[in-house]
Amino acid sequence: MTPPLASFCRWAKDNGVVSRLIPKDSKGMGVGLFFKADLPDNNSSHNLDQGELLFVPQTLLLSRSRVLAFQCPHLQKSFSIVGLANVSERLAIILFILSQRLVLENSSQQQHSTPNASDHATPNNNSCNEPTGALFQDYIATLPDVSTPVTLDPELVRGYLAGTLLLDSVCAKRSKIEAEFEHLSGNLGAFEDWSVRPTLDNFIWADATFWSRVLSFKTQWTENDASSNSDDSDDMHMVPYLDFANHAANPNIRWEVDSDGLRVWGQESLLQDSNDDSVEREVFLSYGSKPNTELLFLYGFTLRDNPTQSLTFAMPMDENDPYYMPKAHSLMRWGIPPRITIYLKKTDGPDDLEEFCPGMWITQQSRHLLWLYALNEDDGLGALIEEPEAKICLPDESTEDGNEEDALEEADLVDEDVVGRLVLTINNAKVDTHETLESIVPHLDIFPVIKLRALVLVADRVEHYITRIMETGDRVQKTEDIEIVRAVHYDTDGHTINGVPLPDLVDAPLASRLNRDIGDCLVPTILEPDHTEPITSRQLEAEAQVSNLVTMMRNYRAEEMSLLVDMSNSLGQAQTHCLEESEFIQSYLARMQLQDS
């Protein structure tokens, strides 16, 4: 057990955590939690119930309200600058863990630069003592570097995820977080009072750490729990100890929250899995039924043979559509974004999933989006400007001088309640809600054709992404040859590490390099192209993370391509079936062909 992890376990016990689980290395998956049937709990002053494996007291559940209560001057100043109303649960927690980590790293550097410094020196910083947040420093010290596509160098990601749907999400997330950091650090100056100011990489780490570890407590609440909760905005929590648990599609533990804290229970499959009480078994949580796209995006890993498979497509509207504006306005009012998610199993999505074609399901929202995209004027589609409920009031002098038109041009014409709304109509019936759309479209004579058009729309989008991946294959190869496999040459001056000449260690595979007890030394790494500074063991661990992530990204790209091809085949078969089985579609297409000729 590493010193930070050992310190964390002592801290957890001292602060009321009761556990029959041991945190330890989990075969390339970072730290995991392990259970032994004969292992007593770590705290003799408390007793766990039958089947209970872990108790984390309320005082150690890290949430927005907890962070805001810390008497921590530099954080309070940051929150004041941002404005409490703008401090979300996420922002409160990431600024807290970020500030604490910077303090710890700065303290560690000062100790290394001062030979006589005490091994247990208290950081000289603005974080003060509990109840200011210093209580959590042993926990913060265990938080590892996180490696996800969002945290990597953007050019590296563009190479390995070239053409994929995931790349779009990663680039959008990266741009958003860069803009947020620039706003906080540059525009607002929210870090001016911090003893150590964060960099963009620090901020990205805190964001990735939050999303990879946070638990949503509202998923555990009943309506009574939510109504009686004094601060029902506290949904997102980081939970020390439990957040070491890794993910599995079939978890063997479950958790629940009560007024005292959080409790973890073992499933029967874990408790009765082995007759040998001395055998350690890793315990797993479920992060939810997530496809590999989401797992790789949020956590930096994928599951082999993941039972959950889905893809989310951007579905931009044709701007040349004569009804582009009223369609766009309707979708915005109904809260329907221009994208759809296709699920390959009905059980993998929300309750309102409906079969789109054999083997593919979509939500009701997605179906309404496709209907609107598919409808045109020949189907009876129209639009009108609905009269506003309130008229614009013009000053008396403007009408007296005959300047009514000028005054109207200067009025605020954004509010639909004032200037009227663009509303779609179908056969002269106003379609002002998606419920109305649902009640009209399926009863249209043209409905079989609309379904066929929806299939064509999605098939075209799938083909677009297949083509994009195929056309960017050379970028993946270039990344593989140049960015990852770097030929690094430097003068070793005859140095050895544990008797092993540096050139031998340099040429050794990554796994063998990492298995050697080398400490801080000059060793080639994919993260440090110049090697002007010694490479630390922490950097080597980061190299291993990046190498694993690179492999997962390459495999994910192949997996996405395979899914897209399968979807394309299913959509093609569905279109053929529609054409062959529907006499209405055949006669409709014949009439259209006659009109065109």
UniProtKB/TrEMBL annotation:
<dbReference type="GO" id="GO:0016279">
    <property type="term" value="F:protein-lysine N-methyltransferase activity"/>
</dbReference>
<feature type="region of interest" description="Disordered">
    <location>
        <begin position="109"/>
        <end position="128"/>
    </location>
</feature>
<dbReference type="InterPro" id="IPR046341">
    <property type="entry name" value="SET_dom_sf"/>
</dbReference>
<dbReference type="InterPro" id="IPR050600">
    <property type="entry name" value="SETD3_SETD6_MTase"/>
</dbReference>
<protein>
    <recommendedName>
        <fullName>SET domain-containing protein</fullName>
    </recommendedName>
</protein>
